[in-house]
Design goal:
The chain is built from seven helices and ten strands. By secondary structure, it is of the alpha/beta class.
Length: 249
Protein backbone atom coordinates (compact mmCIF):
# COMPACT_ATOMS: atom_id res chain seq x y z
CA UNK A 1 0.00 0.00 0.00
CA UNK A 2 1.57 3.28 -1.07
CA UNK A 3 2.72 5.87 1.44
CA UNK A 4 0.62 8.69 0.02
CA UNK A 5 -2.55 6.70 0.67
CA UNK A 6 -1.47 6.02 4.27
CA UNK A 7 -0.67 9.69 4.84
CA UNK A 8 -4.04 10.79 3.47
CA UNK A 9 -5.75 8.14 5.62
CA UNK A 10 -4.04 9.57 8.71
CA UNK A 11 -5.17 13.08 7.83
CA UNK A 12 -8.72 11.82 7.26
CA UNK A 13 -8.75 9.98 10.60
CA UNK A 14 -7.61 13.17 12.37
CA UNK A 15 -10.23 15.29 10.60
CA UNK A 16 -12.95 12.87 11.72
CA UNK A 17 -12.72 14.46 15.18
CA UNK A 18 -13.90 17.78 13.71
CA UNK A 19 -17.60 18.52 13.33
CA UNK A 20 -16.74 20.35 10.09
CA UNK A 21 -13.85 18.48 8.40
CA UNK A 22 -11.57 20.63 6.25
CA UNK A 23 -10.06 18.84 3.26
CA UNK A 24 -9.18 20.84 0.15
CA UNK A 25 -10.57 19.47 -3.09
CA UNK A 26 -12.98 16.95 -1.52
CA UNK A 27 -16.76 16.98 -1.39
CA UNK A 28 -17.48 16.37 2.31
CA UNK A 29 -20.61 14.65 3.66
CA UNK A 30 -20.57 14.50 7.51
CA UNK A 31 -22.75 12.08 9.46
CA UNK A 32 -23.49 11.83 13.16
CA UNK A 33 -25.81 9.92 15.48
CA UNK A 34 -25.38 10.64 19.18
CA UNK A 35 -21.66 10.47 19.90
CA UNK A 36 -20.88 8.35 16.81
CA UNK A 37 -19.71 10.47 13.90
CA UNK A 38 -17.62 10.56 10.76
CA UNK A 39 -17.75 11.79 7.19
CA UNK A 40 -17.56 10.79 3.56
CA UNK A 41 -15.08 12.57 1.30
CA UNK A 42 -15.41 12.25 -2.47
CA UNK A 43 -12.79 13.22 -5.04
CA UNK A 44 -12.64 11.80 -8.55
CA UNK A 45 -12.60 8.00 -8.48
CA UNK A 46 -12.08 7.83 -4.71
CA UNK A 47 -14.58 7.73 -1.87
CA UNK A 48 -13.17 7.97 1.64
CA UNK A 49 -15.25 7.20 4.72
CA UNK A 50 -13.64 8.24 8.00
CA UNK A 51 -14.96 7.10 11.37
CA UNK A 52 -14.32 9.17 14.46
CA UNK A 53 -12.73 7.62 17.52
CA UNK A 54 -13.49 8.92 20.97
CA UNK A 55 -11.87 11.31 23.41
CA UNK A 56 -13.43 9.28 26.22
CA UNK A 57 -11.33 6.16 25.66
CA UNK A 58 -11.47 5.04 29.28
CA UNK A 59 -15.24 5.27 29.20
CA UNK A 60 -15.80 3.12 26.13
CA UNK A 61 -13.29 0.52 27.26
CA UNK A 62 -15.16 0.23 30.55
CA UNK A 63 -18.73 0.48 29.32
CA UNK A 64 -19.05 -0.91 25.78
CA UNK A 65 -20.65 -4.33 25.65
CA UNK A 66 -17.74 -6.76 25.16
CA UNK A 67 -19.95 -9.73 24.44
CA UNK A 68 -19.80 -11.32 20.98
CA UNK A 69 -22.36 -11.62 18.24
CA UNK A 70 -22.23 -13.60 14.95
CA UNK A 71 -20.51 -12.09 11.91
CA UNK A 72 -19.26 -13.91 8.81
CA UNK A 73 -18.05 -17.34 9.99
CA UNK A 74 -17.09 -16.02 13.44
CA UNK A 75 -18.19 -13.33 15.84
CA UNK A 76 -17.45 -9.68 16.63
CA UNK A 77 -17.46 -7.31 19.58
CA UNK A 78 -21.08 -6.46 20.33
CA UNK A 79 -20.41 -2.90 21.52
CA UNK A 80 -18.45 -1.89 18.43
CA UNK A 81 -20.91 -3.61 16.13
CA UNK A 82 -23.88 -1.87 17.73
CA UNK A 83 -22.08 1.48 17.42
CA UNK A 84 -21.69 0.83 13.69
CA UNK A 85 -25.38 -0.07 13.44
CA UNK A 86 -26.21 3.47 14.60
CA UNK A 87 -24.70 5.04 11.46
CA UNK A 88 -24.88 2.14 9.01
CA UNK A 89 -27.70 3.50 6.84
CA UNK A 90 -25.73 6.74 6.40
CA UNK A 91 -22.65 4.78 5.35
CA UNK A 92 -24.71 2.85 2.78
CA UNK A 93 -26.18 6.11 1.48
CA UNK A 94 -22.65 7.40 0.81
CA UNK A 95 -21.69 4.19 -0.99
CA UNK A 96 -24.87 4.31 -3.08
CA UNK A 97 -23.65 7.53 -4.71
CA UNK A 98 -22.11 5.97 -7.81
CA UNK A 99 -19.30 7.34 -9.96
CA UNK A 100 -16.32 6.28 -7.86
CA UNK A 101 -14.16 3.14 -8.15
CA UNK A 102 -12.07 2.99 -4.95
CA UNK A 103 -13.40 2.94 -1.40
CA UNK A 104 -11.16 3.76 1.58
CA UNK A 105 -12.38 3.06 5.12
CA UNK A 106 -10.30 4.74 7.81
CA UNK A 107 -10.45 5.49 11.52
CA UNK A 108 -8.55 5.95 14.75
CA UNK A 109 -9.15 4.11 18.03
CA UNK A 110 -12.79 3.00 18.16
CA UNK A 111 -13.15 4.56 14.71
CA UNK A 112 -10.61 2.02 13.47
CA UNK A 113 -12.77 -0.80 14.80
CA UNK A 114 -15.78 0.70 13.02
CA UNK A 115 -13.81 0.93 9.76
CA UNK A 116 -12.77 -2.72 10.00
CA UNK A 117 -16.29 -3.89 10.83
CA UNK A 118 -17.70 -1.80 7.97
CA UNK A 119 -15.25 -3.47 5.62
CA UNK A 120 -16.36 -6.90 6.78
CA UNK A 121 -19.99 -6.06 5.94
CA UNK A 122 -19.40 -4.66 2.47
CA UNK A 123 -17.84 -7.26 0.12
CA UNK A 124 -21.19 -8.88 -0.67
CA UNK A 125 -22.77 -5.48 -1.29
CA UNK A 126 -19.95 -3.90 -3.30
CA UNK A 127 -18.01 -6.77 -4.87
CA UNK A 128 -17.39 -4.68 -7.99
CA UNK A 129 -15.16 -2.12 -6.31
CA UNK A 130 -11.61 -1.79 -4.97
CA UNK A 131 -11.62 -1.41 -1.19
CA UNK A 132 -8.93 -0.45 1.34
CA UNK A 133 -9.05 -0.38 5.15
CA UNK A 134 -6.49 1.69 7.08
CA UNK A 135 -6.72 2.07 10.85
CA UNK A 136 -4.68 3.74 13.59
CA UNK A 137 -4.53 2.56 17.20
CA UNK A 138 -7.35 0.13 16.51
CA UNK A 139 -8.65 -2.19 19.25
CA UNK A 140 -9.40 -5.83 18.51
CA UNK A 141 -12.96 -6.27 17.27
CA UNK A 142 -13.45 -9.89 16.14
CA UNK A 143 -12.63 -13.45 17.11
CA UNK A 144 -10.16 -15.83 15.44
CA UNK A 145 -12.58 -16.99 12.74
CA UNK A 146 -13.65 -13.45 11.90
CA UNK A 147 -9.99 -12.39 11.69
CA UNK A 148 -9.28 -15.32 9.37
CA UNK A 149 -12.19 -14.29 7.12
CA UNK A 150 -10.77 -10.76 6.97
CA UNK A 151 -7.36 -12.10 5.93
CA UNK A 152 -9.01 -13.87 2.99
CA UNK A 153 -11.11 -10.86 2.01
CA UNK A 154 -8.31 -8.29 2.34
CA UNK A 155 -4.97 -10.10 1.92
CA UNK A 156 -3.15 -6.89 0.91
CA UNK A 157 -5.58 -4.02 1.45
CA UNK A 158 -6.20 -3.98 5.22
CA UNK A 159 -3.52 -2.07 7.11
CA UNK A 160 -3.30 -1.44 10.86
CA UNK A 161 -0.90 1.20 12.19
CA UNK A 162 0.15 0.96 15.85
CA UNK A 163 2.52 2.87 18.13
CA UNK A 164 4.75 1.54 20.88
CA UNK A 165 3.16 2.32 24.22
CA UNK A 166 -0.37 2.54 22.84
CA UNK A 167 -2.42 0.08 24.94
CA UNK A 168 -5.57 0.25 22.81
CA UNK A 169 -4.40 -2.18 20.06
CA UNK A 170 -3.91 -4.75 22.85
CA UNK A 171 -7.54 -4.48 23.96
CA UNK A 172 -9.86 -6.28 24.44
CA UNK A 173 -7.97 -9.37 25.57
CA UNK A 174 -6.34 -11.57 22.93
CA UNK A 175 -7.93 -14.62 24.58
CA UNK A 176 -11.28 -13.57 23.13
CA UNK A 177 -10.49 -11.27 20.21
CA UNK A 178 -7.87 -11.25 17.45
CA UNK A 179 -6.37 -8.72 15.07
CA UNK A 180 -6.35 -9.05 11.32
CA UNK A 181 -4.65 -7.05 8.57
CA UNK A 182 -1.01 -6.16 7.98
CA UNK A 183 0.59 -4.10 10.75
CA UNK A 184 2.89 -1.10 10.51
CA UNK A 185 4.50 -0.67 13.93
CA UNK A 186 6.27 2.49 15.12
CA UNK A 187 8.75 2.18 17.99
CA UNK A 188 9.16 4.81 20.73
CA UNK A 189 11.43 6.85 18.40
CA UNK A 190 8.65 6.99 15.82
CA UNK A 191 10.56 4.68 13.47
CA UNK A 192 8.69 2.04 11.49
CA UNK A 193 10.15 -1.37 12.35
CA UNK A 194 9.34 -5.07 12.21
CA UNK A 195 9.86 -5.70 15.90
CA UNK A 196 10.72 -8.78 17.84
CA UNK A 197 8.67 -9.41 20.96
CA UNK A 198 11.47 -8.00 23.14
CA UNK A 199 11.84 -4.88 20.99
CA UNK A 200 8.08 -4.33 21.12
CA UNK A 201 8.03 -4.70 24.91
CA UNK A 202 11.04 -2.41 25.38
CA UNK A 203 9.65 0.34 23.15
CA UNK A 204 6.26 0.13 24.83
CA UNK A 205 7.89 0.42 28.26
CA UNK A 206 9.89 3.50 27.27
CA UNK A 207 6.82 5.17 25.79
CA UNK A 208 4.74 4.41 28.87
CA UNK A 209 7.44 5.83 31.15
CA UNK A 210 7.18 9.11 29.26
CA UNK A 211 3.37 9.05 29.61
CA UNK A 212 3.19 7.58 33.10
CA UNK A 213 0.89 10.28 34.47
CA UNK A 214 -1.35 10.57 31.43
CA UNK A 215 -4.83 9.04 31.47
CA UNK A 216 -5.62 6.73 28.58
CA UNK A 217 -7.70 9.32 26.75
CA UNK A 218 -4.72 11.72 26.53
CA UNK A 219 -1.93 9.14 26.24
CA UNK A 220 0.59 10.53 23.78
CA UNK A 221 1.23 7.18 22.11
CA UNK A 222 -2.48 6.79 21.38
CA UNK A 223 -3.17 10.28 20.05
CA UNK A 224 -4.04 10.59 16.37
CA UNK A 225 -1.66 13.55 16.15
CA UNK A 226 1.19 11.24 17.17
CA UNK A 227 0.15 8.69 14.56
CA UNK A 228 0.12 11.35 11.85
CA UNK A 229 3.57 12.59 12.92
CA UNK A 230 4.98 9.06 12.71
CA UNK A 231 3.44 8.48 9.28
CA UNK A 232 4.92 11.76 7.99
CA UNK A 233 8.32 10.82 9.41
CA UNK A 234 8.11 7.45 7.65
CA UNK A 235 7.28 9.23 4.41
CA UNK A 236 10.27 11.53 4.84
CA UNK A 237 12.65 8.62 5.47
CA UNK A 238 11.35 6.65 2.49
CA UNK A 239 11.56 9.71 0.23
CA UNK A 240 15.16 10.40 1.28
CA UNK A 241 16.23 6.84 0.47
CA UNK A 242 14.83 7.20 -3.07
CA UNK A 243 16.77 10.38 -3.80
CA UNK A 244 19.89 9.97 -5.99
CA UNK A 245 23.08 10.33 -3.98
CA UNK A 246 25.36 13.24 -4.87
CA UNK A 247 28.91 12.29 -5.73
CA UNK A 248 31.99 14.45 -5.55
CA UNK A 249 33.76 15.53 -8.69
Amino acid sequence: MNGNRIELAARMALQAYNDSPALTGFVISPFKVGNIQGFGARKGDDLWIAFCGTNDAEDWLDNLDARKEPAMSGSVHTGFNQALDEIWTMVLDLIAQRGWRRLHLVGHSMGGALAALAGSRLPGVTAWMEMHIITFGQPRCGDRRWASDMEMLFPESYLRVSNAGDPVPHLPTCWRFRHSGREIYFDHHGVSVAPSLWHRMGSAFQSLVLDRRAPLATLHAHSMSRYLANVLNRQKIEHSTLQPQETGR
